[in-house]
Structures are given as C-alpha cells and as structure tokens.
Design brief:
This protein is α+β, with helices and mostly antiparallel strands. It has one domain: Alpha-Beta Plaits (2-Layer Sandwich), CATH 3.30.70.20. Helix content is 24%, strand content 24%. The chain has 2 helices and 4 strands; from the N terminus they run E-H-E-E-H-E. The strands form 2 sheets. A two-stranded antiparallel ribbon has the order 1-4. It has a two-stranded antiparallel sheet with strand order 2-3. The longest helix is centred in the C-terminal third of the chain and has 9 residues. The termini are close together.
Length: 59
C-alpha cells in the first residue's frame, strides 16, 4: 500500500493526522506522510475516505 497527499489540494484540516497519526502529520499548511502503512491499514483508508478535499490517495 502506498499513500500520497496532493499538497495543492490539502487544506490541513487535520482529520487524517487524527485518524492515523502513525502515518500522517500536519506540517505547515499541508498534511505529510511520515511513514507508509503496513498491511491493509483500515485507519488510512478511513482517513482517505474522510478527507474533505480528496487530497489523499491510497494505492
């Protein structure tokens, strides 16, 4: 699983960092992937699905 954040879309609402703090961190005005998740990582998919601007991609 690979997670990316489109910095041009991100509004730094913090929902992803709250849902999966081991993967996301807010740095400045964007969310940053600090570590790629291992396994299925349902919290990461929840973060991607909950992103209000669809800036998170999981592949």
């Amino acid at each position: 699983m690979t997670v990316t954040v489109d910095a041009s879309r991100c509004i730094a609402c913090g929902m992803c960092a709250y849902a999966a703090p081991e993967v996301f961190r807010i740095v400045g005005r964007t969310s940053t992937v600090i570590a790629q998740p291992e396994g299925k990582a349902p919290k990461v998919r929840d973060a991607a699905n909950g992103c209000p601007v669809n800036a998170i991609r999981v592949s």
